[in-house]
Write a structure and sequence with these properties.
The chain is of the alpha+beta class. The protein contains seven helices and four strands; from the N terminus they run E-H-H-E-H-H-E-H-H-E-H. It has a single domain, classed as 2-Layer Sandwich (Alpha-Beta Plaits). A four-stranded antiparallel beta sheet has the order 2-3-1-4. It binds adenosine-5'-triphosphate (ATP) and magnesium ion.
Length: 142
């Protein structure tokens, strides 16, 4: 059965452009509830570990550079079938291919600077939520 929580990050481009409020409003309108949230500036080690699955890909150094270029905002979100629902709400990796009304269509600049992250599986949602938050910092899901 699909889980009901996922992990998102409002990335440094959207945070720096003061789009956090608009993005959170869009997600809340889509029925997501915030279970944990913080503002932070990731270190190179943190960003490298978070995206370790992409180590060796040509865009990896640029990705780590971008994710550490300014503050970002990780959040644990709750909704039925949360992983698929959030991937739908954020849109395709490349904003040029993202559907109308998605976060990336509205706020992403490019495939690299694409405004928001979302977990891609229930397993990664749990792993990524624990990467940023202690269990005691995450509200109980309903
Ligand atoms: P995310 O994991 O950030 O939610 P995603 O799951 O849509 O994004 P991934 O394939 O996991 O996409 O890639 C992780 C991130 O690496 C992308 O969000 C993007 O910022 C960057 N990225 C991926 N492919 C490219 C590329 N070809 N050129 C530049 N950046 C890329
Ligand atoms: Mg991904």
């Amino acid at each position: 059965m699909a889980g009901n929580t996922t992990l998102t990050i409002i990335k440094p481009d959207a945070f720096g452009n003061a789009k956090t409020g608009k993005i959170i409003a869009l997600l809340e309108e889509r029925g997501f509830r915030i279970l944990a949230s913080r503002v932070m500036h990731m270190s190179k080690d943190q960003a490298g570990e978070f995206y370790a699955v992409h180590k060796g890909r040509p865009f990896y150094p640029e990705l780590v550079e971008f994710m550490t270029s300014g503050p970002c905002m990780p959040m644990v979100l709750e909704k039925d079938d949360a992983v698929a629902a959030l991937r739908g709400a954020i849109g395709a990796t490349d904003p040029a291919e993202a559907a109308p009304g998605t976060v990336r269509k509205l706020y992403a600049e490019s495939k690299g600077r694409n405004a928001i992250h979302a977990s891609d599986s229930d397993e990664n949602a749990v792993r990524e939520s624990r990467f940023f938050f202690a269990e005691t910092e995450i509200l109980a899901a309903r």
